[in-house]
Amino acid sequence: xxxxxxxxxxxxxxxxxxxxxxxxxxxxxxxxxxxxxxxxxxxxxxxxxxxxxxxxxxxxxxxxxxxxxxxxxxxxxxxxxxxxxxxxxxxxxxxxxxxxxxxxxxxxxxxxxxxxxxxxxxxxxxxxxxxxxxxxxxxxxxxxxxxxxxxxxxxxxxxxxxxxxxxxxxxxxxxxxxxxxxxxxxxxxxxxxxxxxxxxxxxxxxxxxxxxxxxxxxxxxxxxxxxxxxxxxxxxxxxxxxxxxxxxxxxxxxxxxxxxxxxxxxxxxxxxxxxxxxxxxxxxxxxxxxxxxxxxxxxxxxxxxxxxxxxxxx
Length: 314
Hints:
Blueprint: E1 4-7, E2 10-12, E3 20-24, H1 41-53, E4 58-61, H2 71-81, E5 84-90, H3 116-128, E6 140-146, H4 154-170, E7 174-177, H5 184-194, E8 202-205, H6 213-222, E9 225-228, H7 237-251, E10 258-260, H8 267-271, H9 274-290, H10 292-306, E11 308-309
Parallel strand pairs: 3-4, 4-5, 5-6, 6-7, 7-8, 8-9, 9-10
Antiparallel strand pairs: 1-2, 1-11
């Protein structure tokens, strides 16, 4: 069976993915983002239309369960704008989930991480049956989990175990939110060494949070995909570092491991350009310095490899 990319409108040949924002958000909600939530379908449509006008063809949303991933709007947005959308299942750090008076939080979409087996079943259902609240057939094509800023919590142990189980059951790639105080090599050991997930099925996000070149060179050498996802933060140190990180990995021979995304998580970041800036600022600078072949590799060729899977139904 040929590999395909699972979008909200169905499975797609990797060659049809086109120019891709490999890590971003149309919708996201968290207690840590109070007043900055992305929750407006009309605003999401404007983003996708601008992204398409700039040459964008596919948009990978890393918003996991229980964080307002907009499941009921994704298919219509994709049809209306012509942009392919890959949705995520999975779970973020425990701090992003508040169980209380908000009925939107206390919903079947919120991950219950009391048992990794139950959580894995929910991840698998999102990938094979469909997203809760979405139209029939709207399925996730990615599993998103997160590392901790310090010592690994029981919550994270369970979510990563569940992600690995769901990956083995379905074939879906796993994307990981990294923290600057965390240990990305330990994440790789946990998912690959302990749970048997092949490194090339793992995408590590927030590469610019690690200033030590040896860290990301070593990760690339292991075969994981590395998502450089800061361009929505105009003027932020991570944004200023992005170009240098790319240049370093290109020099080290690891350009085939790199993905680019804007990771727009707030209204402020969206106003600063969001995913459009990825194509109108960073991509032209890369093309001028390294040639258009590199931008095609990072925005088109590499995503087609990273997000494609041999999908299985348990």
